[in-house]
Amino acid sequence: MVSGSVNNTEVVAEVDVVVIGAGQAGLSSAYHLRRTGFEPDRDFVVLDHSPGPGGAWQFRWASLTYGKVHGMHALPGMELTGADPERASSEVIAEYFDTYERTFDLRVRRPVDVRAVREGPDGRLLVETSAGTWSTRALINATGTWDRPFWPRYPGQETFRGRQLHTAQYPGPEEFAGKRVVVVGGGASGTQHLLEIARYAAATTWVTRRPPVFREGPFSEDVGRAAVALVEERVRQGLPPKSVVSVTGLPLNDAIRQGLADGVLDRQPMFDRITPDGVEWRDGRRSRHVAADVILWATGFRAAIDHLAPLRLREPGGGIRVDGTRAVADPRIHLVGYGPSASTIGANRAGRAAVRDIRRLLTEEPVAA
Questions:
Q1: In 177-329, where does DSSP find H-type helix?
Q2: What is the mean pLDDT of residues 170-193?
Q3: Cα separation of the two ends of the chain
Q4: How far apart, in whole angstroms, are the C-alpha atoms of residue 302 and residue 150?
Q5: What is the pLDDT of residue 246?
Q6: What is the pLDDT of residues 199-229, one digit of tens each?
Q7: Is residue 1 predicted with pLDDT exceeding 60?
Q8: pLDDT score at 3
Q9: What number of other Cβ atoms are within 10 A of residue 49's Cβ?
Q10: What share of the chain has pLDDT > 90, as a percent?
């Protein structure tokens, strides 16, 4: 690890690889870097803006217990065993990630906010952060989506006198006791919120842009591969990635069946406008109004990649064109946990693939993009 200055920019260190983010994707990448001979602090560094280990999981609501988590795949090299299914997933996974970081001596630096990644001299990249600037030959971006909740805009939204919040701010169901709640969104979070809130709220209304698709039967490997392939095709074309669940549909489990039978999951089409005291549908001269105290936007997230803007990687379609994990416009940059690798098992595989490509890149002479 070498420090110095580049073009009057004080450089904390020069390394071969900077990993941004210490969630599943970042830790998987760091593990594979370590396993293939890269030394932390000397050859690579992991920067994470969160206050502690756990990635986005540490911010999940307390009622999301570990037993309710679907598809949490172990990090490479260490299984998560013996976890109490009744404990909050935020606690279980934060402890697991903490143990993982210490076991493999990954030396994650936090809290460090990455502000921008820019072109540097001699084919290197400059990673500007709240803790100084790192100079690197390659970059693994593993920033996920949690920091970019998507808030749709609807007419009248600013007039609503009640409370509006996003899944990222969801406090748990008890806070909605006695309230009339409109939940917007047809994904897994929306249905989970509804099933929890309905036990406490005075009334709930579920609205989605498209009718929800419920999936019968087991989620086979073939179905999973087909879904990932569709998401992968979008990022290959430079389009913003969609979630895998938008392709696979929602699993029709016992809780969902009960919610459908009870009328909790009685989906309504998207409203036309928001009023000071609720939401409204209009059909010609007729209108229908539902009173609400709260609008909960379970409308998903977008990739947190604004810090890469100086590199001009975005395509006209709005996304970054990716081949595997490599940014097509710049082979020094890999996006892990982006698009098809956003699932936990996908992030593990993508971390390994990114490190393999980076090792190949670093054996060649560095060339500016």
A1: 188-197, 221-236, 245-248, 254-262
A2: 95
A3: 23
A4: 6
A5: 67
A6: 999 999 999 999 988 877 655 556 555 666 6
A7: no
A8: 56
A9: 17
A10: 70
What is the chain's mean pLDDT, rounded? Answer: 89
Q: Which tokens sit at 219?
A: 């989620």
- Per-residue pLDDT band for 9 (boundaries 50, 70, 90) equals low
- Torsion-angle region of 251 (φ positive above 0: left; ψ -120 to 50: alpha; else: beta): beta
Instruction: List the Cα angle 96/305/270 in 5-degree steps.
Output: 90
Mean pLDDT confidence for 69-75: 77
- Name the one residue in this structure whose structure tokens are 């020069």: 14
**φ, ψ dihedrals at 176, nearest 5°:** -100, 15
Contacts of 357 (CB under 8 A, 6+ apart): 324, 325, 326, 331, 334
Rg (alpha carbons) of the chain, rounded to whole number:
22
Helix (H, G, I), strand (E, B) or coil at 297: strand
**Sign of the torsion angle spanned by Cα atoms 147, 150, 153, 154:** negative
Please give the order of strands across the beta sheet that includes 294-297. Answer: 163-166, 294-297, 180-184, 203-208, 267-269
Q: Tokens 């006695």, residue? A: 178
